[in-house]
Amino acid sequence: MTLFYLKLLVTPLLMWAISLASRRWGGLLGGLLSGLPITSALVMTFLCLEQGTAFALGAVPGALGGLAAVQATYTFYLFATRKLGIAAAVSLAILFYGLAAYAFTHWGGLYLSVGVALLLIGVLIRASGREPRPDTLARPRHRYWEIPLRMVSATALLMLTTSLASWLGPATSGMLAPIPVIAWPLVVFAHVQGGRAGMAAMVRGNAIGAVGVIAFYLAMAGLLEHTGVAITMLVAMATAVGLTVALAALLKGRA
Known about the structure:
Permeases of the major facilitator superfamily, mainly alpha
């Protein structure tokens, strides 16, 4: 029961904090924060505590396949919105995610998923860099229901994924862990409010953060059996954050 209330408390608070940071400091930072393995770390932690470490380790290949599918979906959305409206692009992107996640999880492997994810991250960083820059002086209109809706959606997905884990099995549970439940609403809302420039900044930040997500899962796979859940998650998160910050600083310097 304690874990149940912890899920209800931590997830919406994280979504609220990231949403406020995005409003205050812009889409790139919002994308970076939402791209970090926050939802993934929560899902994997609860899988460890509720299903055991062996189950969580079995979910890692599926999680990396899901991450590759996430990057494929953002790539699809970035290019599709050049021709399609937002509603049509979102609908097709969600369908595309389901197909891509199934393909990577069932027919790919860990190394293929990592390789494809890194390739797509490079494509996203390059393509988003060619989009118009956001107008830092513009003040997009924010609606009162946006952040509560994001908080509810993030919490609902976490609860659903962890509650059905024993029935779904480790592969499918892992595939669902990196679903961009925090990042995806931010990307769509940024597109609606700030146009392509705001959306591209959010996607760019998320792609940079995805490098840290890969590091998180690889560190988790290497440490979990030997160091326990708490230390593994702390080290994996620290690795992800450090790598993300370093990459963001490197790309900013080159820009």
